[in-house]
Every structure is written in structure tokens, then in C-alpha cells.
Design brief:
The chain is mostly helical and about 210 residues long. It has 10 helices and no strands.
Length: about 210
């Protein structure tokens, strides 16, 4: 369920303040003031600062997009499906760049509950993508491999690219065909590997 307009204002204010002052430095009073509401309204909607930031992370994560996207991948050729997924993931990261930067810089200072919550959210994203790989394995379209590990590797390669280009180098990945080229490269390596046999054909190890 999409948050109400008031909740959206509070969520946006939370992200803005946490990006400026960190999770511990951003007080609920300041967040409420930035959102143009009373602190009582903030607590009525979220109950606590931890609950508020947890919803920030959940609502701004890739999980809702992933759940919405997976049904659309059914019937697409595997390579095309992964390219579609890869582009959506990178665009999602770019749209949520501020939150990504907050999580990257603040994680070590979060209370234990917040770190566990973030870990659980990441596990849920990986499990959700793993269901896609598992479904194709059951159809015989993919060989057997650890589906969650594959999900971690695929999204991990894309996230590493995003972090290097957008956050560390300040490059806009949506310009000059950079994103499409990166996605195609990651998908090609993910599907075909890197080892070549004769004439460049993929060499498969016999099991």
C-alpha cells in the first residue's frame, strides 16, 4: 500500500535530514519540522524513529519494483529478461541514489536493529530474484545451481558498477549508452562465463 501524502512528506524529510546529519543526528523534531507537520503527527503515523526509517528503507528499496517486474519477465528469452531486470535495477538505484549513499556511509553506525532490518531486506530481495531462477530450473531452461547465490552475484555485479560510476566517480550512467553497455556486458558474463574453448566457444567442465 502506498503511503499517504503526509507520510510521503515525512519519509522525504527523513531521507533529506539523514543524508545531512546521519541517522543518529537527525531528530524526530527536526524531521517533523522539515515535513511541515507536528512531531505528534510523526509519531502517530510511525510510532518511533526506528519504524520511520525502516519504512524509508523498505519503500525506497528495489523490492517493490522487483516484485512488480517478475511477472513481466515470463515468456521473455532469458538474456532479454536479465537485461530488462538489470536496467530496471540500475535505474532504481539511480532514483534512490540518496538512500543508497546514506546506507553505504551510515551502516556501521546504525543500531543493531537497523542493521538486522537492512540485512533482512536484502535477503528478501535475493530470495525474490532466486524464485525466478528456480522457476526456470524447474522448467529445464537452466541447469541446476544455487539460485540465491546466483541472485547475489547478478545484482552484486550491477551494484558494484553503480557504486563505482555514480557514487565514486560521479558519472551519469544514463548518458551516452553507458548503462545499456554495462548491463549487456554483465548479462553476457553472467550467462556465458569467461572461459572459452576452441574458436571462442564456451568450454564446459564435465561433471
Amino acid at each position: 500500500m502506498r503511503p499517504t501524502a503526509t507520510k510521503e512528506k515525512i519519509l522525504d524529510a527523513t531521507i533529506a535530514l539523514v543524508s545531512e546529519k546521519g541517522y543518529l543526528g537527525a531528530t524526530t523534531r527536526e524531521i517533523a519540522r522539515r515535513a511541515g507537520v507536528t512531531e505528534l503527527t510523526l509519531f502517530r503515523h510511525f510510532g518511533s524513529k526506528e519504524n520511520l526509517f525502516e519504512l524509508c528503507v523498505e519503500s525506497r528499496s528495489f523490492l517493490p519494483d522487483l516484485r512488480e517486474l517478475l511477472p513481466d519477465l515470463d515468456g521473455l528469452p532469458y538474456e532479454e529478461a536479465l537485461e530488462t531486470l538489470g536496467r530496471r535495477f540500475l535505474l532504481s538505484l539511480k532514483e534512490r541514489k540518496q538512500m543508497v549513499m546514506i546506507m553505504q556511509s551510515e551502516m556501521a553506525r546504525y543500531p543493531g536493529k537497523m542493521r538486522r532490518m537492512y540485512g533482512q531486506l536484502m535477503d528478501e530481495i535475493l530470495k525474490t530474484l532466486a524464485t525466478y531462477f528456480t522457476a526456470l530450473q524447474k522448467k529445464g531452461a537452466l541447469r541446476h545451481f544455487p539460485a540465491e547465490l546466483a541472485a547475489r552475484m547478478f545484482l552484486g555485479m550491477l551494484f558494484s558498477y553503480f557504486r563505482t560510476e555514480e557514487i565514486m566517480r560521479g558519472t551519469d550512467i544514463t548518458k551516452g549508452g553507458r548503462m545499456d553497455a554495462a548491463v549487456k556486458g554483465v548479462v553476457d558474463i553472467f550467462i556465458h562465463g569467461t572461459a572459452a574453448g576452441k574458436n571462442g566457444a564456451l568450454k564446459r567442465r564435465r561433471t
